[in-house]
What we know:
Layout: E1 19-22, H1 28-38, E2 42-47, E3 61-62, E4 65-66, H2 67-71, E5 77-81, H3 86-97, E6 101-104, H4 110-113, H5 118-124, E7 129-134, H6 149-155, H7 158-161, H8 176-199, E8 204-208, H9 209-215, H10 219-227, E9 244-249, E10 252-257, H11 261-271, H12 274-278, H13 285-290, H14 292-303, H15 308-317, E11 322-324, H16 328-333, H17 335-339, E12 343-348, E13 352-357, H18 381-389, H19 393-401, E14 405-406, H20 409-415
Amino acid sequence: MSTSSGALSNWAGPLQGTRVIDLTRILSGPFATQMLGDLGAEIIKIERPGTGDETRGFAPFIGGESHYFLGVNRNKKSLALDLSDPRGRDILIDLVREADVLIENFRPGVMERLGLSYAVLAEANPRLVYCAISGFGQDGPLRDAPAFDIVIQALTGVLSLNGEPGGVPTKLGIPLGDMAGGLFGAIAILAALNERASTGVGRQIDVSLFDSLIGMLGYYAQLAFVTGRDPEPTGSRHPNIVPYGVYPASDGSMVIACLTQIFWVKLCAGLGISDMAEDPRFATVTGRVAHRDIIDAAVSERTRTFTVEQLGKILQDADIPSAPILGVTAALTHPQSVARNMVVEVDHSSAGEMQMTGRSIKFPGSPQSASSAPPRIGENGPQILRDLLGMSDGDIARLADAKVIETPNSVLQESA
C-alpha cells in the first residue's frame, strides 16, 4: 500500500482557509464534507454528546471505531455539542460567525425547531453559505417523509434498471442515492462560495437525494422521453450498445465494452472473428443491437476458450476497453490504485496505524498535506472552543460537567 504523496507539503488544498460547520451524519452529508475536507477546507463536525454520528455504532470496529464512520469522515475535527441546550445553540451560532459554510442533512424543519434556521444563522453571518441535504427537499408532497438510499433508488426508477432481465430489481451495490446527494451538495457549496466572492453575501442551498438521483438518470430518462416506455433492466449489458457487458472465460469472466465502431472492428480482429465485422447486419450500432443475441453468442463462444489472463492480454493488445471483475480488496491493491495514491496510511488516535482511501482529486505540481484520520467523538472540542471562541479551560470544564459538550478527560489533558 502507498502512503500519501502529500507528506512533504503543508498545503491543505484550494479550499485552505475555508471553515465548514458540519452538522451532518450517516452518509450523504459526511460524504459531502469529506470531499470539502479533501480539498483543504477545515471541517468542524458537530456531534451529539454520548452517541455522536449514528454510524459510530455500526460494526465491525477497529480500535473501537466503526468501519462505516471511518470511511467518510477523514480530514475533520469533532466537537460533541448538545444543540437542544440553549448554551449549545449559542455556541453553534458563535461558531457560525467564524465560518464560511454550514451543512446539515436533517429532515426539513429540524433546524427551525432547534432555533437554528437559515434566517437565524444568516443574521449572525450574512456571508454564510448554508446547505441543507435531505431525502426529498424542502418542499413537495414527500418533504417530511423518511428516506434512505434504497428508498431513493426505488422512487427514482434507478432500482428498476438494475438486475437481470425478467428478474427481481436489485439495488446498486454502492449507495449512489446518498452519495449523489453528497456530490451535488459539495458542487453547490463551491458554486455559492464562488458567487459570494463577487457579492459578499452567502445563500441557502436545497439539495435532495431524490433530485440528485433523478438528475443522474441521464440517457435513461431521455430514452423514456423519446420512446414513451420504461427502460428495462439489462443486467451488465447496455440498452443500446453491443457487444457490451460480462463475457465468459474458461476460469472466470471479463468485461468488454465496445462503445464505438472502431472497438467493434478491433474486437472482431482480436478474437479471430473478422468476418463478423464485415457482415452488413452488424455494420452499425443499430444493427448490432437488433442482432444482440447472435453477437453475444459468437463473442462468448470465443472468449470462453481463453483464461481471464489470456483474454485480458488479447483485449489489451487490441486496445479494447475491458477489465477482469475484481473484488474490493483486489481493486484497492491494484497497481493503478497504488500509483494514484488511492490507499494511504494514517495514524488514528485509538485505532493506531490504519489504511484509508486517498483523495480522488489531484493537483499536479502541488501535492497536498497528508490526510488526517477521522476523529474520535469530541476529540477536537477543547481546541475548537479555545481557538475560535476564546473559551478558558474553566469554561470548557463547566460545559462538560453540564453535558453541553462531551470532552473526555484524556482529550482535555492532551489539548492543554
